[in-house]
Design goal:
Elements lengths: L4 E2 L10 E5 L3 H13 L3 E5 L2 H10 L4 E5 L1 E2 L2 E2 H11 L5 E5 L4 H10 L3 E4 L4 H11 L20 H14 L5 E4 L6 H10 L8 E5 L8 H6 L15 H5 L4 E5 L6 H13 L1 E2 L8 E2 L3 E6 L3 H6 L5 H7 L2 E4 L10 H15 L6 E2 L1 H7 L7 H14 L5 E2 L36 H19 L4 H8 L3 H11 L6
Parallel strand pairs: 2-3, 2-4, 4-7, 7-8, 9-14, 9-15, 10-11, 11-14, 16-17
Antiparallel strand pairs: 1-3, 5-6, 12-13
Helix pairs in contact: 6-7, 13-15, 16-17, 17-18
Amino acid sequence: MNKINNTYSQDKTHSTKILIVDDEPDIIELLELTLARMGMDVASAQLIGDAKKLLNNNTFQLCLTDMRLPDGEGLELVRYINQFYSDLPVAVITAHGTPENAVAALKAGAFDYLSKPVGLKEVRDLVKSALSIPTHGQSYPNQRTLLGNSPPMHQLRATIDKLARSQAAVYINGESGSGKELAARMIHERSARHSQPFIAVNCGAIPDNLMESEFFGYKKGAFTGADKDHDGFFLMAHGGTLFLDEVADLPLAMQVKLLRVIQEKQVRRIGDSQEKTVDVRIISATHKTLAQCVELGQFRQDLYYRLNVIELNMPSLREMKEDIPIIAENIINKLCAEANRAPCQLKKEALELLMRYEYPGNVRELENILERTLALNSDCEIGHDELQMPEKFKIPAKNEINAPQIKLKSSFDEEAIPLQDFLDKLEKNSIEKALEQNRYNRTKAAKVLGITVRSLRYRMERLGLNEPA
């Protein structure tokens, strides 16, 4: 019974080879027949020990393993492969109705999972997807990256590369402006879904009454104004990745509907009588603490566990200040290129000043500072005095910049209030100022703020701002 079955032939050394580890002969036979029809070579083992021997003596492109084996758990093999054969995708076969096993496997490093009874179409789709995963270090044109050489940045890039080799749902946690969407796009671009759509959705910018139609789509004539079919975010992202930014802002009623779609992998457009199957990887993000939102009853616990299979924490700019020079240089070069102006350079004294600031808005705030600086300065070299730092940030004189007794403060030091209340206050003041300067023309105010009119309208409603009578 416990024997190794190796079906490799000498003249097929360059064909795709797949390892099956399962102690049920019927499952092995089903998978062997399915994979053989796809032109794959198959080796099978019924024990973890035998599987390790095959791994040591052969090169595989995919491993399929059962969760429960006579000599141990499938998770042991998943961890072994991740440690010694990191380029080899491994998928697990779980018993029907045990999603906790699937989640444990994904957290251990499995690429994906199949539930028993195993469907042939699911097997074929999984194999095709696994074989599309880029190898470590492989890159594509215009692939994004995170700059920096600090330990937190090295760790972040390594984690992103690991997450890209999985199909698990990812929850990205981090402060506003820390690069959560960039991290999501990097995961997508390095994954097996890199050639498929990446759809980014700001959950906080969609009015409640449009949630269902925007996410799930609608049929022509479903309601007044539906003059053509609309697919919605899930169907638009089919085969690719759906990024749900500020997911904590979803209303509870929408959370219920979202949970069902994630569980069933089926979407019914408004006005449609048929459901459509969707294959979407979910990556979500928020600057709030989602676990705290669950405790406060603002976010469903069951949806939280569906979204937070693997958590990715984005470091703040304060935690990697040694990366500020390289990030600032990259921003300056990009802004100069967009403005068709000669390249600019930050003087040493300017870089030292940038590294002293605390950046409550993280990289996005650094970018805003440099954009204001370039807009108000035509010189090719930017010094201490030219930097457009926040008004309440104390700037020392040039001859005092290295004095140890000087302590620079951000505006955060002045008020001991919750972070979200402080950010809301800043946002409200900025919107009011922009509206006043543009005589309450929302289109012009939105342009000054760098947001859409729709986003401005939502933010005004959320902050309780009303136009004067």
